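Could you join me in thinking about how sequence relates to backbone shape in a protein? Would you write everything just below, so we can both look at the same thing?
***
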Amino acid sequence: MGLVAFGAPGIDRYHLHERLQRELRSRGHAVAWLALDEAEATFFCHQGAACSPIAGERPDGALAPLDEIAQVEYARLGLAEGGRRHRRCRAASCKRLARWLPGLCRWFDRQRPDLVLLHQRRTAEQALVQFVARQCGTRVLWTGDGLLPHTQQCDERGLDGDALASHRAAIEFRDARAGPGLLQACLANLLARVEPSALSRAEVRQPVLGDRLRGAAAALLRGRPAAARTALIGWRQALAPEPQRRAPFTLPHRPFVAVLLQDRDDPRVRLDAPLAPAPGPLAAAARAAADALDPALGLAVVLPAAGLARSDRHTLAAVPRAMLLPACAAPEAAATALTTVTISHPLAAAALLSGTPVVHFGRALYGLPGVTQHARVDELAAALGRAVAADEPTLRERFLSWLFTQAHLWCSPTHPDHNGLCGLVQAIEARLGPRAGPRPPYRVGPAWPLAAEGRTG
């Protein structure tokens, strides 16, 4: 069997990794938890995981293009290039990566893992692990939050704009098999907000106070207050998330254009659309484009989950005839709009599933010419017109069917069920070769309504 390494996983996704570890071990595989952050290593060790902390040592940057790898961190933090904070972050990031590099290379040379699983976090640390793994000939698999709730992306290159799926051409789907029943089930599952039959969670053990205090003090001495906070209370991220409450909302009663806003610090914005417009200018451009298309059109602006900064609220309030909707309204707004406009919001997939045209400004998994319209803000009016006039339902159906079968796993990253974990194990074992043995049974698609149809059919 094989050795699977979890590459610097986050504490917030401990439940997913812990359940996956059980499944892999039950099938004869070994699992190693690779931790670069001291606080995360302390947490995983207290949970009894086979954790391999990579301690910092004398910097050695000669083995990797650290400046290029560290650029991920500058973009993720939204730092303006050439500014003082950018220069300080560049120096600190390169030094930190150089200190990890020797130990990381030794670990790969000694352990020779068969596969490294990188989940969700598009940081410089994950980019460093990916670089070293590939240099050592180890396969890499990325997973992370999918376009639909309780799904995961699955790609060997990266997530969202970095994924291989976002760089495909329309001609590659000429022979793809369409699955209209699957797509209808996806939309029904999304709008019904069906929750998976989640597996039980292991008890989270709080690291002892002395270890947390020592970790926090060390982080403060290195000038990393965020890491100090993680050392003290980061273990709470592994607890079960609180149920989300839905705010009431009402959609416009006339045809409308939907705008799906995103948090400014969303990696899908900062890494995949660094030049994207702010919420106010985006909504204003959408209002002007809708007026150019038809002055009678309404405008529904779906707010980001974390809310808006005060300056953004002021500029958004100045947009005429704009109906503001809570973040939970994104599926319904996208699915029923005449056109959906966004930077790279994942729930623009709801629009595509219902046949609603999508115009976006950033790189995205669904960004396929002929299926969506990629545009700049200054050409939004023309892009809206093209999106409404140019509809290729066959290509869209083939592409979405491929996307939700080949590039997605039906495994919740926060509430995994048994079928989803079997799919994740399948994806891992497919990259381990024939020695992994027979694959566990896995059903593609949402449990409802597909499973219900199977029982009654």
In short: The CA atoms of residues 299 and 321 lie 7 Å apart. Residues 84-111 form the longest helix (28 residues). The mean pLDDT is 91.
